[in-house]
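Quick log. Single chain, no ligands specified.
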Amino acid sequence: MLVGAEGSRVLTLRLDPNAPVPLHHQLQEQLRAAIDAGDIPPGGRLPSELDIAAQTGVSRTTVRRAMDELVHAGLIHRQRGRGSYVVRPPDDAADAVLFRFTSPLLYPRSPAARWERRTLTVRSPVTAPRLAGQFALPLQAPLLRLTRLCLLDGRPVALETSVLPQLPRGVAEHALTDAALYRALERELRVHISHAHDELRAITLPLRPAHLLGVPPGTAGLCLRRHTYAGQRLVEIRCTITASRASRLRAVVPRRYLLVV
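-> predicted structure:
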């Protein structure tokens, strides 16, 4: 058993060298389960690689490989000379200016309102050098583009286009057509969605989005552009377009910001 530091509970890690599952994968799955269960809380420090290796009887290389997978999944991050920590939301998240993109579709006015997402297209491979560069991939790397129409009580109110890195072998494209895309990403790609950066722009609706939303081309609209992260790893670029008559921007400004402007 291992005692985690800084509020972490006692961890019990049992690896089976006779199992068909590689030891590093067994270890990262058990550490992932401990993080998901809250045994190691956000911001909590994991036991050192040397301690884990000593207690489980595996090499430090095996432990390092398991930890690398957790870093890649956005669950933990390393601090040089201090150790590995469970990712927590940005420290200033509670005090930051909150921009909330609201509309009847995202926040129905009636509990009886019926909200759905309808998948229009799933295209792969797609080549988009500028977007591939943002994912830190080679410029000609294949990407996947998912387009969905958002409806409220059967009426189209927003068009979502998500671009993702091409799925690993063995993950079917239809697995991401869930209404809850981020849950599907976490389930299929084994990542932990940690945060997103949003940018709102005023636009005039091009022909195809206007047609799908049932408004004339050139109608004033809003585009919410989102970069979604698992730790420091970018996992999705999304553009949500809606006619401005159906949406508004609401800003909640904490007192601390009002006193300095």
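The chain has two domains: 2-86, 98-258.
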